[in-house]
């Protein structure tokens, strides 16, 4: 806890905070390895994952205001509720409660990360709100303190504060950076029409496992971490894996066509991102990624194919 302010001491808050707008850019994530362990007593699954932040961004601008209000444009506009259920508003309240400040701000979200796409867009927005409001209100928390608040908002939120490539354990909220020599990996991100519910994907995986029809669980992240160190996209391609992929394919069989089309277009590997339905493909380099994206769009197996690179930084003021 930082030093307490009286919640009604707005003058002091204004003196400490930013007077102009604060703009924060936050990336989407993919899981290079998503190992799903058993269901825990608290309803979460034990995860063993390698997160990777990619260059598809949402942008949150925070300005001073007399209430807490959110507007948005882009992916999901008109569909996503802007009330207290939105992760941006929940994050602002969580930070204000922690720091003992008045949660007043005008927030505007420019969304490019597809909704319910398996790219952790909502978690990204929560991370952006923590970083933006921390600067706007002058609460001055460290990244680790912000990540602590983030963990209560969602399993992926702490990673999106940090970004890069990182190991996630527990329900995904315990994050430690993967230290590798700087290498840029090139991705094609096939955005699907409509989303998939993450809880439904976990339930489907449990059902497939009970029925004995799920694939072998991935297990340790050692292979993936070793592949990252070799800096060869062909080696990384062979190490990618996602235990939720069977569940996503069972709920959305058409994703098999997307994965096949990526392979036919020459991708080194393709996997479902998180709980889907977004599929991501690894390319040898940027030009290769561009060619795969064009072929995927021509094959009409996705709403849109975007190129991206990673790792990139987490939520940052721009
Ligand atoms: P994950 O990969 O973390 O499982 P996802 O990418 O599949 O998530 P999100 O876009 O993060 O899915 O959103 C999941 C749900 O969270 C949405 O359907 C919506 O109900 C809720 N939500 C709340 N706030 C937001 C937000 N700012 N952006 C997106 N979704 C939000």
Radius of gyration: 20 Å
Strand content: 25-35%
Q: Average pLDDT across residues?
A: 95
Give the % helix.
25-40%
**What is the CATH C-level name of the largest domain?**
Alpha Beta
H and E order: HEEEHEHHHEEEHHHEHHEEHEE
Enzyme class: transferase
Organism: Micromonospora sicca
EC number: 2.7.1.148
InterPro entries: GHMP_kinase_C_dom (IPR013750), GHMP_kinase_C_sf (IPR036554), GHMP_kinase_N_dom (IPR006204), IspE (IPR004424), Ribosomal_Su5_D2-typ_SF (IPR020568), Ribsml_uS5_D2-typ_fold_subgr (IPR014721)
Features:
318 residues; 12 strands; ATP-binding; 4-(cytidine 5'-diphospho)-2-C-methyl-D-erythritol kinase activity; four-stranded antiparallel beta sheet; alpha+beta; binds adenosine-5'-triphosphate; Alpha-Beta Plaits; 27% strand; Ribosomal Protein S5, domain 2; eight-stranded mixed beta sheet
How is this structure best described in words?
- With 318 residues, this protein is α+β, with helices and mostly antiparallel strands.
- The chain folds into 2 domains: 177 residues, Ribosomal Protein S5, domain 2, CATH 3.30.230.10; 125 residues, Alpha-Beta Plaits.
- 36% of the residues lie in helices and 27% in strands.
- It is built from 11 helices and 12 strands.
- The strands form 2 sheets. Strands 1, 2, 3, 4, 5, 6, 8 and 12 form an 8-stranded mixed β-sheet that branches.
- Strand 9 and strand 10 form a beta hairpin.
- The chain is globular and about 60 Å long.
- The model has no long low-confidence stretch (mean pLDDT 95).
- Bound molecules: adenosine-5'-triphosphate.
- Adenosine-5'-triphosphate (ATP) binds next to helix 2 and helix 3.
């Amino acid at each position: 806890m930082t030093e307490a302010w009286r919640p009604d001491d707005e003058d002091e808050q204004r003196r400490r905070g930013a007077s102009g707008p604060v703009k924060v850019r936050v990336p989407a994530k993919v899981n290079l390895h998503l190992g799903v362990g058993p269901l825990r007593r608290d309803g979460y699954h034990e995860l063993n994952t390698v997160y990777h932040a990619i260059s598809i961004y949402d942008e949150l601008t925070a300005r001073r205001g007399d209430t807490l209000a959110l507007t948005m444009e882009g992916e999901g506009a008109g569909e996503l509720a802007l009330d207290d259920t939105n992760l941006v508003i929940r994050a602002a309240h969580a930070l204000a409660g922690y720091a003992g400040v008045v949660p007043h701000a005008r927030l505007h979200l420019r969304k490019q990360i597809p909704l319910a796409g398996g790219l952790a867009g909502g978690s990204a927005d929560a991370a952006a709100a923590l970083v933006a409001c921390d600067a706007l209100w002058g609460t001055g928390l460290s990244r680790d303190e912000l990540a602590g608040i983030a963990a209560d908002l969602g399993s992926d939120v702490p990673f999106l504060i940090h970004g890069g490539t990182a190991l996630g354990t527990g329900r995904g909220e315990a994050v430690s950076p993967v230290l590798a020599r700087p290498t840029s990996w090139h991705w094609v991100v096939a955005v699907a029409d409509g989303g998939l519910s993450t809880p439904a994907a976990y339930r489907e995986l449990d059902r497939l496992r009970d029925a004995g029809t799920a694939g072998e669980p991935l297990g340790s992240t050692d292979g993936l971490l070793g592949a990252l160190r070799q800096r060869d996209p062909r080696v990384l391609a062979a190490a990618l894996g996602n235990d939720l992929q069977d569940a996503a394919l069972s709920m959305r069989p058409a994703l098999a066509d997307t994965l096949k089309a990526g392979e036919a277009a020459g991708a080194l590997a393709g996997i479902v991102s998180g709980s889907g339905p977004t599929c991501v493909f690894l390319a040898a380099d940027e030009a290769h990624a561009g060619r795969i994206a064009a072929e995927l769009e021509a094959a009409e197996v996705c709403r849109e194919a975007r190129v991206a690179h990673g790792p990139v930084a987490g939520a940052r003021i721009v």
